[in-house]
Recover the amino acids of this structure.
């Protein structure tokens, strides 16, 4: 479906922007900005592909992904302030991307015959580990280990998707439901400052 | 052999506990605790599988491994203090797990036709790189680069195993001998504060 | 061609030395020195092989690479001061190695049918990510994200190689031209303190 592919590409672009801006904040040079943009955008899906053995990894066979990431660089350079002002809408879009990446990663893992539990895990990895690798390369403790609850939003979205698949054959509907769930949980989490402390 | 599989699973569980406790110490949240537990437990074997091309990586095909790791979370939550008191026995068990992981990693690598030298290296990676990845994700310098000599204990154990394989057809005996060697070296190392400085 | 293989091995050896010396500077122990030497020398090519699906990764099938890396340890131990005095010539050689690694990585990627753009990227990864992994394991921000412009030198060298391949069938000539380009750019960059800031 073309709309899904368009959202996928735009999500990749938004992820790349967040990577490039992290590099700017760290005062990295052009190489650092390119690497962080790339890694944030495709790091999660790349790790998933490597772990499940789907190599060469996905983005290598899709030039559009590479173009979408490359576009983040001039866009950040010329419109940095406008992007920072638009942060809220970018954040909204980001969350749609996260939901989509989770479901696509889940489907790809199921597609090669792995169990639903592993598929859910790989869905979450697809959506969140780009940010983890970005943080490790920036010499920071990964954000999702401390505050951001979006890995949990992905978990709930992935489970909702699996349950809907069981009852409904309408793939598009199931996808939209899962994305909506991720979206709502994340918005609520940010609004109400939800956290998941683990203090035994 | 069922005993080997049982030790393997229990070793995985102990490794996961050490990862979860590292996350607690770092004040990570639930997501951080899950990721660190998982990565510490299966990170070394996962890296080995990816490098030698045995994908999807091992734990994806064995739900018991996933259950053993998941069990570490409630156990740490409810029995944290008891675990810290039992630290010495946990440490003992940990060392048996390390020896076993080394030999299993070595055998898997030999099994796909790679050389004994590479097999020894992959055995050590299986046993030690879970901890390395845990430390990198926690933004720490890996412990085994500074103090812990257990990579060296694995090296000696792996070589003992290879030599015994050459002379004896009794796989169980060879395995037990290798595990014992790793165990004795590590106990001695901790007791006598052995170190392997490299100051040219 | 034997000369190419000899330069490849010697480049690997020089990279391993730089890794071992980084471990010495960080006061790592013997295990840390071995791991950093190894990772600096083959980390880039290993990452490339994993991403493009050429596993078991290259160095596992070539004992000479393992010997070249192992040799770095005693050499650093006994001749540390002499190496530091020779730093300038080592630096020169290092740069030849970087150019060669770029082209070899590019060729390997083209060889499995991936696009020239991906091949250029994998060439650069082959030459530079050993250092990135070394820095991550040492808990440092990767050097190439801040100062060193050698990723850019690799980029230009890789493009020159591709263009020459289009016009000339003389593989050796094309290789030498690409290596020369990387060499000249890097020397000029160091001499004139070139940088590639990215400050939107």
């Amino acid at each position: 479906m073309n709309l899904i592919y368009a959202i996928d590409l735009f999500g990749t672009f938004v992820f790349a922007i967040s990577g490039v801006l992290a590099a700017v904040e760290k005062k990295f040079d052009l190489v650092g900005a390119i690497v962080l943009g790339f890694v944030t955008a495709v790091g999660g899906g790349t790790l998933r592909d490597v772990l499940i053995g789907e190599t060469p990894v996905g983005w290598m066979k899709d030039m559009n992904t590479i173009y979408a990431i490359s576009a983040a660089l001039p866009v950040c350079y010329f419109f940095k302030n406008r992007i920072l002002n638009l942060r809220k809408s970018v954040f909204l879009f980001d969350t749609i991307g996260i939901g989509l990446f989770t479901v696509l990663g889940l489907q790809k893992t199921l597609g090669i015959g792995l169990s639903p539990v592993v598929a859910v895990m790989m869905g979450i990895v697809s959506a969140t580990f780009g940010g983890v690798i970005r943080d490790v390369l920036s010499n920071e403790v990964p954000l999702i280990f401390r505050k951001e609850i979006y890995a949990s939003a992905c978990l709930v979205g992935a489970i909702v998707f699996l349950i809907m698949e069981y009852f409904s054959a309408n793939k598009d509907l199931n996808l939209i439901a899962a994305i909506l769930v991720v979206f709502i949980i994340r918005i609520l989490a940010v609004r109400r400052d939800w956290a998941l402390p683990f203090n035994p």
Remarks:
- Residues 114 and 145 of chain C are 26 Å apart (CA to CA).
